């Protein structure tokens, strides 16, 4: 089989396609013929960190879907030919998050990812593909969609008539927009691109703010909500946006901290949280149970992921470059097999 490996050659990081033996599943494991993978901003972070050599020969990417191709002993829940989605955290099946689960994040420093023709996964780390989705569409769900679901509903308790502020139009942002609209919440979207804002409007966004034209966008958010602020903020930016996100919150609001698009270690003034009786929720993707629940939600609401572009397996480095350009609207997908 073929698999991509991260290579650091004289300080130049790239993905190299290599030949490997097809793996065999052990007890409680299944082999998956990967049909498609999708890219996340986290994958760019991993590649940037690979400069220190810590990810040499690691198979990258966390998001994938495919077909059950072989079954190990003890597996009863899956059959040959089943269409499955691969969970981001191999070991976080359900329940509360534990620190030990971090090492099982696919495509990270400790665990190989999914950018290969065949992979082995525990049978407990898989979810059935919703019947209305293709394998390419299903491959977009494990990281971005689970993150939005976990933050908005599991931790944030989003309901109809709530108001959500979404930063940007990347993968997590667009899933959050679709989910919120589906339950009857109002969504305000920030972007630097009027064209992307119009796309967001077509998906159901009620208010659009170009943050380059309106740098003090927290004031625009308050104006749009009669001075009250929003019940939920999907905080994707990091240090450059955190203060304004806090200033956009309504009393008893929820700030869902997800992104690091402008860097790490924000140092905001959190004194506003107490008088607002507000909450901050730190979110790092979610469990296999979360993936199952959002898949059922997408089926019941007939929701489809927004895919920007699809690349052939041989063009993985081009797909990475396209994601890094920031020109995409929606998910970037790699087709691994037909």
How does this structure look, described?
InterPro entries: ADH-like_C, ADH-like_N, ER, GroES-like_sf, NAD(P)-bd_dom_sf, Zinc_ADH-like. This is Alcohol dehydrogenase. One of its GO terms (molecular function) is oxidoreductase activity. The chain folds into two domains: 2-143 and 287-335, Medium-chain alcohol dehydrogenases, catalytic domain (Quinone Oxidoreductase, Chain A, domain 1), CATH 3.90.180; 156-282, NAD(P)-binding Rossmann-like Domain (Rossmann fold), CATH 3.40.50. Helix content is 27%, strand content 27%. It has ten helices and 15 strands. It has helices spanning 41-49, 135-138, 141-155, 171-182, 194-202, 217-224, 242-247, 273-276, 288-300, 316-325; strands spanning 2-9, 12-19, 29-38, 63-71, 83-86, 118-122, 126-128, 163-167, 186-191, 207-210, 230-235, 249-257, 279-282, 307-312, 331-335. Helix 3 (141-155) packs across helix 4 (171-182) and helix 3 (141-155) crosses helix 9 (288-300). The protein is globular. The two termini are 14 Å apart. The mean pLDDT is 95.
Keyword list:
338 residues, alpha/beta, Quinone Oxidoreductase, Chain A, domain 1, 2 domains, 7-stranded mixed sheet, 6-stranded parallel sheet, 10 helices, globular
In one word, what is the shape? globular
Count of helix runs = 10
At the fold tier of CATH, the topology name of the largest domain is Quinone Oxidoreductase, Chain A, domain 1
Uncertain runs are none
Q: What is the CATH level 1 assignment of the largest domain?
A: Alpha Beta
| Distance between the ends | 14 Å
Mean pLDDT: 95
Structural class, please?
Answer: alpha/beta
Helix content: 25-40%
* CATH homologous superfamily (4th level) name of the largest domain: Medium-chain alcohol dehydrogenases, catalytic domain
Number of strands: 15
Total domains, how many? 2
Largest sheet geometry: 7 strands, mixed
Using the CA coordinates, give the radius of gyration.
20 Å
Quickly give the CATH architecture of the largest domain. Alpha-Beta Complex
Query: What's the SSE pattern?
Result: EEEHEEEEHHEHEHEHEHEHEHEHE
What proportion strand?
A: 25-35%
